[in-house]
Amino acid sequence: MRDIYRMLAVVAALAVAGTGVLAIAQSGRADEAAARPVAAPPAVPASSTPSPSPTATPSPTPTATPAPTPAPTPAAIPSPGASIAPGYTAMEALAADRRVPKLPGRVKLRALPGKPIKTRGVIRDAKTGVSVPRLRGPWKRYGAAPFTSRQVLPPAGRSPRGMLVSCPVPIEAQKSLRDTAQLAARWTLNHHPKGAVIRWLGAQPVKKGWSLVYQVKYGKRSSVAAVVVLDAGETKPALVFVTIPDTHKKRWADIRRVTSGVRVLG
User: Which residue windows does the record flag with biased composition (Pro residues) (predicted)?
Assistant: First the structure.
């Protein structure tokens, strides 16, 4: 009987031991499962059908706005004494110069004060192709530059010095020698005091050219001057220019001697 009780005790012990082992095994499996990383579900469920790409809407083509047509800029009116303004011819610039009045067709020269001086032959100016009367004293020859010949009167105070010069016309030659002579007269204002204006005294054709005589007023003083423009067969017409201030008023008659004595070289 005692042996039977022993056997039952052993069986009961084994049963208890088996239960513990099973519990331990199950606990290990649970721990292992808990230690495994759990994969997170996808944020967006995958779809078997691909989504169509959005169709790009073409941007509207901008319509070019025509640029406004700029208003034409009027050409500047040449100021008195200024060089030729852009877009203007030499004669248009002359017409706009208030210092030079419009030239009549012909103006007969009246007698000038004084007695015309005698001459001592001529000065042959080969560069212009003309000869100029060589005047006696008080006139005397002087260094030509920047002209091609020059004669002068003695200085008289602050007045411009009287002079007689020749050179090729220093301005744009025109088809008409009369027009060229007008432009040359305007140019001679560069050799008179500031503010000088012209008053025509004489205008007449001469052999192969034109002669213009005029008074130049500057303030209370004045000069009498003349230009003779001749076609001497050179590249540019020849210019003979004489001016005498009122401080040598008795010599004004010499101007007629000059205008009548200029010749084209033969």
Answer: 51-77
